[in-house]
Amino acid sequence: MLTQLKRLSIEADGRYASPQELQFCDEYFQSLPLRLSAYQKLKESADEIIALTELKMRAIDPKIFINSTGDFTPTWKKDIEQLVRYAAAALLFNDSDRLNEGLLIWHSTIAKSYKFDRTCKRTFQVMPEVMREYLSPEEFDLLSPLLSLNGVVLG
């Protein structure tokens, strides 16, 4: 929404925006109650979601958080907390561009340099399953493209 509004303010500079150009505003405001609800649920449940994701990942691969430098679980938790917060904000504002440009590209570079690729891939296979338990189907449908973007960029 914020990126779209910024783009519209530039494109419609000096004129009135057309109804087609404003359509995204109508769609956003219609979905806002659902976005607010999902955002609040993610905010309240983030710690549980991360803990359950970690537990399920360890059940699949007990050494998922071990690399040549040792156990990087604390680093993973810190990074995933940040990614969940950014995804929740991107959901609230309907702004996947900001998520991608603001965080995912940077995290992708870090993940590759520390060889976290396998862990990132597994995280974004497991985490959507966990988040589905905390959100309504409609809320999850709004979040799902953002989780997919995380998985594509980081996995």
In words, what does this structure look like?
The chain has a single domain, classed as Phycocyanins (Globin-like, Orthogonal Bundle). With 155 residues, the protein is mainly alpha-helical. Strands 1-2 form a two-stranded antiparallel sheet. Helices cover 81% and strands 3% of the residues. It comes from Merismopedia glauca CCAP 1448/3. This is Phycobilisome protein. Keywords: Bile pigment, Chromophore. One of its GO terms (cellular component) is phycobilisome.
Relative helix content: over 70%
Rg from alpha-carbon coordinates: 17 Å
Q: Cα distance, first to last residue?
A: 26 Å
User: H/E element string?
Assistant: HHEEHHHH
Q: State the domain count.
A: 1
Pfam families: Phycobilisome
Keywords: Bile pigment, Chromophore
Organism: Merismopedia glauca CCAP 1448/3
Protein name: Phycobilisome protein
Which key features would you list for this structure?
155 residues, single chain, elongated, 6 helices, 81% helix, mainly alpha, chromophore, Phycobilisome protein, two-stranded antiparallel ribbon, Globin-like, Phycobilisome_asu/bsu_sf
Secondary structure layout:
Blueprint: H1 2-11, H2 19-60, E1 66-67, E2 70-71, H3 73-93, H4 96-113, H5 117-132, H6 137-154
Antiparallel strand pairs: 1-2
Helix pairs in contact: 2-3, 2-5, 2-6, 3-4, 3-6, 4-6, 5-6
Summarize the structure.
The chain has helices at residues 2-11, 19-60, 73-93, 96-113, 117-132, 137-154, and strands spanning 66-67, 70-71. By secondary structure, it is mostly helical.
